[in-house]
Structures are given as structure tokens and as C-alpha cells.
């Protein structure tokens, strides 16, 4: 598979993943552009893998986690793009509050919860992506859910995937 | 307390913002040493002035497209033997898709991208004054196109992705990328190689994939799903909301579209 083909097909998906991970579209743009630049340099090897997209996604996660110094220079206000609640709908307000809480999570917790509930990865897969042990993953997710004020005993979406 | 549905609503909203941002900017692939943090508005300006790294995909305008009357009302190979050139602009691909699709369905192309030469230059780029970004000049115009959006038929609505370009890759490569469990590659009488597969990425979600590699090297790849994100935002992801009980095209219709001689 040619690199241009990969980009044409998967860049929108990478942008979505990076936006969920960073909660900021412009930062996701930076993240994905940088990662694809690196992927291009290694494309001969990456394209031969069984799961090239999974590898590139892992590159996105690693790049995101390595951006600590730059991210900490940002003001907390920059964490979330403001959205005006025009209709006062409770669901929308709840959703936007959830985005704010998500953006406020420590980055490893955020990465863990995104990899679990957005990417649907198992504890083992998340541990591999984050470079930690499975108990650490479970601990990170547990703390993240507490901070997000999510009650797992409440009604869950039918498409939720866990390991 | 909230539940996981609220978290998924938040993810969906962030997906929407990502799509909106992608629609407003020309995506770039940046060389490794050109890491820089800029607001998206600045990125737009930068991209307008230079081509960074390997690929520059140019989004175009979107719009609803109703299929124009086809030469015949059914999808499938025609008796035409002459091939039209591969559409190098997304708008050309939209026009071509309308002809191939005929009266089977209507579609709205919400993402449009031109695909540049598959082997970009690895020569050192030129630093853009004041930007800190290293740019590699684009070697030539697009050689293919990619569009994605919403497709609606009598069966219901769903999402589709379509790409057409000359390619050295094989349909089996797309089996891996499309994550179809039952992907099958076959050789057609004219020597074309066809990869097809289906998947059920989530309860109630169904997606079909077909990729054709013609003897002349032309690759046509399409997937269609009743779910928001037929390719899957990430492997094993929920993939967004479900539009209809079934994809807007049947598996056979998809294969007929990809193998049509009307391209």
C-alpha cells in the first residue's frame, strides 16, 4: 500500500482519534501531521505490518504523551474549545460538561479512557500502547471514570466494547 | 453521575469537530524535524503557502449529488471498452460516481481529497522563512481522488468512501486496512483482481468493502456501511451512530459498482 493511499483513507480517522485524545482540533491537526511525517519516513516497514493503522495510531498516542512540556505551557482555558449552549438542552449541556471533564484529566488517564471506550482496546492492548502494566491501566481507568463522574452501573450503550 | 452514553456523546461531538476542522483545512504531512505548534488558522495560512512533507490533500466543496440518468438503469459492466482517464480531481470523481451509480442511490460527498503522486520526493525540503516548517515541493498534480460522505437509497442511508487512483498496491492490502474478517481476493476474466469483504463492527452495524485492481494499474476502492464511520475511526471502535438497519447498497451492488466499466 502506498503512503498516499493510506493518508487518503485513514487521515480522517486519525484526526478523529487525535481530537478525542487531545480535545482540541488544532492540536490534533498538529499531532497527526507530525505523526504522518514520521510514518512516511518509515513507511516501507510500517506498510508491511499486519496492522499498519494500529501502529500509526500507537504513534499518535506516543506523540501525544510526549508532548507534556508543550502542553503544560497552555492555559487551562485552551483545553476545550468553547461551545455556546444555545438551546439549553440538558443532553448537550451534559455532553459538553463531559468534554470539559475529559479535557481536564491527566493525560495518561485520558489516553487510557479513550483507548478503552473510544478505541475499544483491552487492558493488555492499552498497557502495550501506554508502556505500563495491566493493573496500572485498570487503576488509570478507574480514576478517570471517577473524575468523569461516570457510573458504570448506569445504562450503557449497546456497542460498548471491552476485553 | 453520568453514564457511558454521555462519554460516547462527548466522543461523537469531538469527532464532529474533527471532521469540521478537516473540512476547513488542507491536511499536511509534516517532516519529523518540523514539529511546531500553531493554531489551526495559522496552519491554514501555512498550508496555503507551501506543501509540507509527502502529501498534500486538497479538500474541495461539498454538495448533494443526485445521480444523473445513466446510460442504462442498472449497475454493471457495460460494453464500452475504452477507459476514461482516472479522475484527478475529487469533483471529477463525484461526476464519474454519479454516472456509475445511476439511479440506484443519491449521495453527498462531504470529504473530497486529491491524491498526489504515490512516491513523493525525499529530497531535502526548503525551510519557509519565519515558519520553522520544512517543506518539500509537490512533484505534480493529483493522480487520483478520494471522496466520502452519505449515500441514500431505497434501502436507507449510510456512509461511503470511494477512492480511484493508479496504484502499485494490491487489493489484499486493503483487506488488512479495512479490517474485514472474510476478505476474499479473486481474479476476474479480464485479469483484474477483486477483493471483497464484509464486517459487523458493532451490534447492528454492517459494512461492505470492495477493491478492484485493473490490469492497467487502476485501483478502485469503495466501502459502504449503515454506520457513521464505515472504515472505523480506529480498529474495533464503535464507529458512530447507525443510520439504517442495513447498508444503503447490497454487497452485490457494491461489487457491481466497483467492477463497472462506466468508470
UniProtKB/TrEMBL annotation, chain A:
The keyword Oxidoreductase does not apply. Residues 96-148 form the RNA polymerase sigma factor 70 region 4 type domain. Pfam families: Sigma70_r2 (PF04542), Sigma70_r4_2 (PF08281). It comes from the Bacteria. The keyword Transcription regulation applies. Keywords: DNA-binding, Sigma factor, Transcription, Transcription regulation. Residues 8-73 form the RNA polymerase sigma-70 region domain. InterPro entries: RNA_pol_sigma-70-like, RNA_pol_sigma-70_dom, RNA_pol_sigma70_r2, RNA_pol_sigma70_r4_t2, RNA_pol_sigma_r2, RNA_pol_sigma_r3/r4-like, WH-like_DNA-bd_sf. SUPFAM superfamilies: Sigma2 domain of RNA polymerase sigma factors, Sigma3 and sigma4 domains of RNA polymerase sigma factors. Belongs to the sigma-70 factor family. ECF subfamily. This is RNA polymerase sigma-70 factor (Sigma-E family). It comes from Lentzea atacamensis. The lineage of its organism: Bacteria, Bacillati, Actinomycetota, Actinomycetes, Pseudonocardiales.
UniProtKB/TrEMBL annotation, chain B:
Residues 63-82, 123-134 have a biased composition (Polar residues). Keywords: Membrane, Transmembrane, Transmembrane helix. The chain crosses the membrane at residues 37-58. This is Uncharacterized protein. Residues 62-89, 111-140 are annotated as: Disordered.
